Each structure stands twice: as structure tokens, then as C-alpha cells.
Amino acid sequence: EPQGGRTERLGTKKQEARKQPWQNFGRDQQRTIYSSSVDIKPEWAVIEQINFPALGKLHCSVGEPEDVMCCGELEYYDKAFDRVTVKAETPLEKTKRAFRNVTTSDDPIMRKLAAEHKATVFATDTILTTLMCMRSSKYSWDLLVTKIGGKLFFDKRANSNLNLLTVNETAQEEVPEEKDNINGVQHLAIEATTINQNFSQQVLVKGGEKFKYDAPNPFTSPEEEEELASCAYRQVTKQTKRQAAGVPRE
């Protein structure tokens, strides 16, 4: 066989490898295993185990969501922040407003809808998002699922890491788990969540007109001394083909 023909084919293979480097991305990387979010007891019974490849084959068709209740009020965005640039920066301000991160079973609206038999499955938007993105999860997390009278309630534990934003979760390098490490999982998550909360309130027009739903914020009370963050909630139902209606809180 002519030497030139062999060289040409080898050169073509190298060119194809350079054109599609992403195909081999991560193949030689070992999956980082982080510690469990909860102590697994030896007496716990294993009901079912689902591996990651099997998760990709799961599918559920749902209908268009229907609003059940909308409550709360929202301040409008301050368009002055559209002019913020690298040269015209604005320091981040710390807000004094309180954020309520309530789990499903502690939500008064969820309890009311369950008592009225509006649905059979109840969960918050955070919990639903976690379940939908579980194939990409690297940090450990856990949920509590309670069945009461034919209804399922998906909850998170008190002080759950689901209350925090994740940082570098899909990075190739392992993130330290030591709690005293400022570049560790816990500190980065707290920092990212704090920045997000402060920024979300700083860019609003204070003391101006508000967009209000018919129902008030369910977490306000006359005895409440803290000012709550500008926030609204939307409860919707989604019907599945198995005739199980779910109510997520958004």
C-alpha cells in the first residue's frame, strides 16, 4: 500500500478527533463521590434502587398546569440597574428582609388544598427541580416522603442543603467538604445563596407601586415584626396520564 495513502487516512482521523474533542470529555474522569446527606441506618429496608442510566429512561407526560391559587405581592424591577457596568458598578447591599423557605407540609396553602382534595401529590418547586435534575446531581441530598390518606407529601428536612444554592457541583475538580474550609461545599453554598437573596431585593423599586395578587402572602401575620422579602407564590395542578394530580408551589 502506498505510504501516502496511509498518511492521509491517519491525518484524517486526527482532524476528526480535533473537531470533536467533546466526545471524549470526562471519559477519563472518575466520578466524585461526596458523603451522604443523611446517616443511613443498617435497619432501614431497601425498597428499590435506581441507577443513573435507568433514570435517563424514565418519562412522565403531564398536561398543561392550571392555577389553583396565587398569593403575595411583588415590587417592580428598578431599570436603573440596566445601566450598571464594570466601570459604573454598584456595591451589593445587605437586605434586612426575611426569606421564608418552608417545606411542603408546613405550607398552610398546601394543607388547605390537601384538605379540599385538590390533588394527590404535593411538593414545592425546589423539591420538584431537585428530582428533575437528579441525573446531574453530584452533591448528596435526601427527601422525606409521607403518605397520608392516599396523598403523598414530598418534604425536605430541617436545615436541608436543598435550601442553599450549589456551587461548582458539575466541576471536574472535587470541592472540599470540610465545614471550616472557606472554599468548601458549605461555605460556597451559603455565600451564593446570600448573594442571590440580597441581589433579588436590591434591584427592586422600594416604596413604589406593587403587583398584588388577590390573596396575601401566607407567611405574614399581625405579630410578624420582620419585613418579608418581596415574594409571591403560585400553586398549580398538573395532571398525569395515571390520573394523579400534583400541586407544586412555585
UniProtKB/TrEMBL annotation:
Q: What GO molecular-function term can you cite, just one?
A: translation initiation factor activity
Note the InterPro entries from the entry: eIF3d
Q: Does the keyword Membrane apply?
A: no
CC terms in the record's Gene Ontology section:
eukaryotic translation initiation factor 3 complex
Which intervals carry biased composition (Basic and acidic residues)?
1-19
Query: What Pfam family is a match, any one?
Result: eIF-3_zeta
Native species:
Haematococcus lacustris
Region: Disordered; residue ranges are 1-22
Q: What is this protein called?
A: eIF-3-zeta
* Keywords attached to this entry: Cytoplasm, Initiation factor, Protein biosynthesis, RNA-binding
PANTHER family, A to Z: EUKARYOTIC TRANSLATION INITIATION FACTOR 3 SUBUNIT 7 (PTHR12399), EUKARYOTIC TRANSLATION INITIATION FACTOR 3 SUBUNIT D (PTHR12399:SF0)
